[in-house]
Amino acid sequence: MATNNPLENEHSESPMPISSKSFHIAGILTIVHGLEELSPSCTSISVLWLLHPRLSNKDAMASIASKCINDWNQRASINGRTGLIAVAFDQRNHGSREVDTLANQSWRDGNVTHAQDMFSIFHGTALDTTLLIDHLGSYIFHAPEAPPIDQHLVLGVSLGGHAAWQVLFNELRVTAAVVIIGCPDYMRVMTDRARLSKLETYTSNNGVDFLGSKDFPKALISSVQKSDPRGQFFGTSEINLIPSVKEQARLRGLLDSKIKGKKVLVCSGGDDKLVPYHCSEPFMKFLKNATTGWYKDGNVYVEDNVYPGVGHAYSEGMIKDTMRFVSDVLAGISTQPTSKI
Questions:
Q1: Three-class SS state of 115
Q2: Which InterPro entries does the entry link to (predicted)?
Q3: Is the pTM of this model over 0.90?
Q4: Distance CA 295, CA 6 (A)
Q5: Cα–Cα–Cα angle for 110, 273, 241, rounded to 5 degrees
Q6: In a designed cystine with 224, which of 229, 231, 311, 317 is the match (CB 3.0 to 4.6 A)?
Q7: What are the tens digits of pLDDT across the range 139-196?
Q8: Class of CATH domain 20-340
């Protein structure tokens, strides 16, 4: 299944130019946006990690970096105590890190290991984000009086959105995420893609045995259960929207360890065929039911927005919501769980 560039319309309005500087960190070419725009009076630094789509590269995220940083700098101009920078790097097997072009393609494009390739690539990106969080500060701030990096946010688009879910759930230092046309349920979205791709492993029995087949091996299921949000919480079982008291206790422990006190903005295209919202919806319903009900004391903010008429794209509405959400998080504005469809 071919991927249209979800960022092709993202540059409809040229943002104010912003500085960028390249660093080689742990063998990864890393671009840091906004260093020169930091106020001399800032006393802390927040980092927005930018994860690009499939078949793209780090350079595609420059416009998003500029818009978010400019929006925050305009809002924070009164005191300037919190500075924002944005960091982009190539996902594994993309851009400067490409090893095998076919591995980035879909089943329909002739890649028989599409499911394994895509998951391992963005799982690796999530791990790379943790690695770079460990080391970024020592490369960009050398002076003893330099302000500390004390907050991390992640924003991912499409393939980067899948990775952003993993970063949010598996990296304690990341306290907020913007997920653009990404899915927290890899097994569901790939089962649906197998259906649309008319794979024999799906059509032979209407998908009953697809998970565990040659197109989605058992070893891949095991990997998904370790790092994918749905896999971590429910494995291959159905998502439980009304858990028993006993089940709530189990889920509470996971929620506490993964996302307690965190914030997430989820933006989905109502007409997205590649990553359709119906694949995310069961897990999103679970998350919203929990965080507004029996897990309300976990102080998790979930904003789940579906944009009518938008396909697999980063729309103008999504861009505006992104800038508002990022600046609100940095400003420490208290928010209530919401959604719009």
A1: helix
A2: AB_hydrolase_fold
A3: yes
A4: 34
A5: 115
A6: 231
A7: 998 888 889 999 999 999 999 999 999 999 999 999 999 999 999 999 999 999 999 9
A8: alpha beta
